[in-house]
Input
Amino acid sequence: MHKAFLAAMAIIAGSGLTACSQKASDSLENAGSAIGGDVSGAVDKAANKLDNSLDDAGRAIDHGTNRLDAAADNAARDARREAGEARNDVGSAMERAGNHLKRD
Output
């Protein structure tokens, strides 16, 4: 009877271990799913931050390009005005020199 009792206890213990093993397996699976979800969320956040940073950089480059274009336009306009003024100054100086030569 002692052997029958030990055999019964072994069967009960074995089925208990199976239940514990299933619980451990379920816990491990749940932990793996949670970790996967956390990693996926972190990757999504990082991708969004990178995308936003690239958008910000693109806007900054566009803004800088626009300012550079405006500065180049202003410089060209100023250069044309200065050239016109210089041409008028040279013309006036030549006219005065010619008048002086006529009087002498």
Summary: The mean pLDDT is 80. The chain has one helix and no strands. The radius of gyration is 45 Å. Residues 21 and 68 are 70 Å apart (CA to CA).
